Amino acid sequence: MEECGTIFIKKQGARQVKYVIIGSGSIGMLLSSYLAQQTNSLLLATHRNIQANQIEQKGLHLVHTDKITKVQHVRTSSCSALLKNNLTDIETIDVMIIAVKSHQVKQVLEDLKGIEHKVASILFLQNGMGHTEMFHDISIPEVAVGVVEHGAMRTNDWTVYHTGVGRLRWSYVQAGKKVIETAFSPLRLNEFPILQEKNWIPLLHSKLIVNACVNPLTALLMVKNGQLLENKYYLNMMSQVFDEACTVLETSEKDQMWEYVRDVCQKTSSNSSSMLLDFEKKRKTEIDSILGYLLRQAANKKIHAPIIAYLHDAIKGKEVEFREGEVES
Amino acid sequence: MEECGTIFIKKQGARQVKYVIIGSGSIGMLLSSYLAQQTNSLLLATHRNIQANQIEQKGLHLVHTDKITKVQHVRTSSCSALLKNNLTDIETIDVMIIAVKSHQVKQVLEDLKGIEHKVASILFLQNGMGHTEMFHDISIPEVAVGVVEHGAMRTNDWTVYHTGVGRLRWSYVQAGKKVIETAFSPLRLNEFPILQEKNWIPLLHSKLIVNACVNPLTALLMVKNGQLLENKYYLNMMSQVFDEACTVLETSEKDQMWEYVRDVCQKTSSNSSSMLLDFEKKRKTEIDSILGYLLRQAANKKIHAPIIAYLHDAIKGKEVEFREGEVES
User: Fold this and answer.
1) Which of A57, A290, B62, B198 is most buried per CB count within 10 Å?
2) Structural domain range at position A272
């Protein structure tokens, strides 16, 4: 299973786009489930060997509106086998999709150095914008970013629930030979619509603002997303984060953006944010890529963002607590 | 037991100072335990009838350094019997000590109207400074405030643990006939030292700043007091509250005050703050008298205090959640 040289099924008629998805959390699994329905050249790279084995043995299970689909054509590999061993017999990858958490991107990019020349294009799907600060160091000619608006929940190593249909919106940072556009255009995935946007910065900014408004507060206050709208004090707290984030990012059309933030809260009102889930599992959050990114931008632009700094300290402090807990146990 | 006219034992030799303590939480019980060792004219007024009955039947139990003292001479009454019934046969009260939570002071003062003329002096022992905003409405000629630096824990209706020896520091707001000074001067309570201070405002300010720094953050972050020193992010959060509080209160000798805050945190490092306990029991906190007071002062003085306002929203929001929980249950 870790012999990556044999991962792609030989050509049968029309040439298949070769996808590699790095990261097998809920988003990596969801994306693999849908893309594999249109290609038989997809490899899902997992962090843990055991998950790769499980998916290989049982198949990847997608649950959506009470229907279970056992998805064919998903090959697996552990990330380490794929990225670190610098396999000489690996075929060229058309589209590599990075679906790991933002704080794992740095390591992935380092590991990727060895096979970069075999990768035609790369698409990043992180929360926040911390990963965009590393783009200068990538030598792959085609780079894109995307935001996933779906609800997904991974229930075990081989099963993912599609809990809410949204869109995958993506945009080029540098278009290269437009391999991604060519790959995505013919796809017909009714329950997983893919939409190309013109400009990557506003695309990421809007998601960043939502993440900045919703994630840290829901984690700190231990509430579902909808509570930020229903509780007038929490709404006030959120609106102050929003104001500072818009100032830092020099957001135009602020009223429209505030509507968008409220709308996302409303539509996901009974959801726990990813950062709240991280808190519940006492694990590292994506705070560095969300509020941390905003604070670095604020420092560059000499903008004062006291509330964001305060909230950032609260989340970083909790992470320190979690780490201390680990040492003790 | 609710016949308050008979609560004071008849004179036997020297005249006894007649104390009434309103509020039978940990502080009210602790104070009663020690004062009753020097007088047999002490009445403890409880919120609940059942607690008054329990203390009457079992005696008030004080636990200190593994020694249990069953305190004699503590009479009880429910607050409602004492304050609301406007008893005509009640004797004059020398010192009335208000040991209820800050948000209960308003109600006590309203109920007190009926017997105010029988009260020679009144001493307030609240956290924060919200209660000081009601002083203009009191017609009792002698008014004082105090801060309790002891550790105390009420384990049941008739038992209080003295978990840490500190001091009761108090000061006159208006000195009247100095009944309190005359009452306290001869007391010899080694484990409950009572210290008179010259100026009431700095006395309350120093306690207010400690409460503002420690209570809301420990509640929100759900940590013991010591964590605010040990976790560098939390320490940073606390120092920002401190800075704003000092600005609002126009505190001189800020360095010395910061030392005091850190010292209190250190000495109570393994304690849960009263606000954290309120959170754990999902009950109303003293936020209005602590950060709320600071915000009202800030508004009067046109001072910007964004961090205090933010933290205030977080605690108020939690209180709303608790109240909603009550309705549901």
Assistant:
1) A290
2) 203-322
CATH number at residue A146: 3.40.50.720
Confidence band for A15, pLDDT divided at 50, 70 and 90: low
Q: Is A185 helix (H, G, I), strand (E, B) or coil?
A: coil
Question: In the numeric block, which tokens belong to residue B188?
Answer: 């010899």
Q: Can you say how many angstroms the Cα of residue B112 is from the centroid of all Cα atoms in its chain?
A: 18
Residue B70's pLDDT band, with cuts at 50, 70 and 90, is very high
Amino acid identity of B191? E
**B313:A233 CB<8 A:** yes
Query: Other C-beta atoms within 10 Å of A259: how many?
Result: 11
Query: How far, CA to CA in Å, does A45 sit from each of A50, A55, B111?
Result: 12, 11, 71
Tell me how many domains chain A contains: 2
pLDDT band at B37 (very low <50, low <70, confident <90, very high): confident
Rounded distance between C-alpha atoms, residue B257 and residue B207, angstroms = 10
Active site residues of B: 207
DSSP per residue, B129-174: SGGGGGGGG---S-EEEEEE--EEEEEETTEEEEEE---EEEEEEE
Confidence of residue B84 (pLDDT cuts 50, 70, 90): low
**pLDDT given at position B87:** 54
Reported ipTM: the value is 0.85
HSE, CB side, 13 Å, CA atoms: give it for residue B282: 9
Q: Which two tokens stand for residue A127?
A: 């929360």
Chosen domain end from A173, A198, A223: A198
CB atoms within 10 A of CB B92: 11
Beta bridge partners, A46, equal A78
Mutate to test the interface with A, among B223, B229, B236, B322 (most CBs of A within 10 A): B236
Minimal Cβ distance to B237: which of A233, A240, A314: A314
Burial class (CB in 10 A: 0-12, 13-18, 19+), B165: middle
Answer yes or no: do B232 and A320 touch at CB < 8 A: yes
My answer on whether B103 and B231 are in the same domain is no
Which residue in chain A is spatially nearest to B313 when comparing CA positions?
A233
* Element containing residue A56 per DSSP (H, E): helix A49-58
- Sign for the pseudo-dihedral over CA of A177, A178, A182, A183: positive
**A252 and A185 in a common domain:** no
Q: Strand locations in A47-126, DSSP E?
A: 60-64, 67-71, 74-78, 93-98, 119-124
Same domain, A87 and A227: no
Q: Are B173 and B221 in a shared domain?
A: no
Which among A244, A230, A225, A257 has a CA at the least distance from the CA of A309? A244
- Minimal Cα–Cα distance from B229 to chain A, Å? 11
Q: Contact, A145 vs A119, CB < 8 A?
A: no
Nearest to B233 among A231, A234, A313 (CB): A313
- Adjacency order of strands within the sheet including A142-148: A74-78, A42-46, A19-22, A93-98, A119-124, A142-148, A168-174, A194-197
> A327 in a domain, yes or no?
no
Q: For B114-127, what is each residue's pLDDT tens digit?
A: 888 889 999 999 99
Burial class (CB in 10 A: 0-12, 13-18, 19+), A325: exposed
Beta carbons within 8 Å of A211's beta carbon, 6+ residues apart: A127, A128, A286, A290
- The contact set of A with B (CB < 8 A) is 220-221, 223, 227, 231-234, 236-237, 240, 306-307, 310, 313-314, 316-318, 320-321
